[in-house]
Amino acid sequence: GQQVMQIPQYQHVQEGEDFTTYCNSSTTLSNIQWYKQRPGGHPVFLIQLVKSGEVKKQKRLTFQFGEAKKNSSLHITATQTTDVGTYFCAGSKSNDYKLSFGAGTTVTVRA
Amino acid sequence: SQTIHQWPATLVQPVGSPLSLECTVEGTSNPNLYWYRQAAGRGLQLLFYSVGIGQISSEVPQNLSASRPQDRQFILSSKKLLLSDSGFYLCAWDFLRGNTEAFFGQGTRLTVV
């Protein structure tokens, strides 16, 4: 079955530094989505990527979809304490209705 | 606008007791519906998904079952809870046949004691 793997599982970042989390799928995806879950909360949609090689930016967040549509990355610059939480990627195939989530990257920030 | 309601928010149940968690969606029709479980510090494990009334697909063998008696109602049940059923249960929906975002309920934190 489809598997979406995400690394690293934990990311401890000094405030102001940059970091990247990576997402890899065993199969070609029709789209990739990213979610953020604050501690104690529920996942909230951040962005969706559909096109091969697509890059999207949201302020300090940069999302990329690989050329083969099997991998994706989220890069955060100048990390702030508000970035704390778990970031999930999720992908679906064109002939499948369901999203498969990665295990998430839990981010903590040192002030 | 669409909303998703999930209840209860927290639940403490003894081992061997039954379980019923309910999720309802408003403001849309024919949604895909999902039940996920998140163990402490872990990712989201898909338990069940449904593309229509009475249509349930199970992702992993387990002690739980799901039902969709109405288009916008999704129920997660168990006849006898196990300690390992503890976790954070999330209901979610997205549009049928669409590559659109999933909307999550607030979640139910279940502790089996």
Describe this structure as you would to a colleague.
The complex is a heterodimer of chains A (111) and B (113). Chain A is mainly β. Chain A has a single domain, classed as Immunoglobulin-like, CATH 2.60.40.10. Chain A has strands at residues 4-7, 10-14, 19-25, 31-37, 44-49, 55-58, 61-65, 71-76, 85-92, 100-101, 105-110. In chain A, strands 2, 4, 5, 9, 10 and 11 form a six-stranded mixed sheet that branches. In chain A, strand 9 and strand 10 form a beta hairpin. In chain B, the strands form two sheets. In chain B, strands 2, 4, 5, 6, 9, 10 and 11 form a seven-stranded mixed sheet that branches. Chain B has a four-stranded antiparallel sheet with strand order 1-3-8-7, with no helix packed on it. Chain B has 113 residues and is mainly β. Chain B is globular. Chain B has strands at 3-7, 10-13, 19-26, 31-38, 45-52, 55-58, 65-70, 73-78, 87-95, 103-104, 108-112. Chain B has one domain: Immunoglobulins (Immunoglobulin-like). The model of chain B has no long low-confidence stretch (mean pLDDT 91). Classes of the chains: A mainly beta (111), B mainly beta (113). The interface between A and B is medium-sized, with 24 and 25 residues.
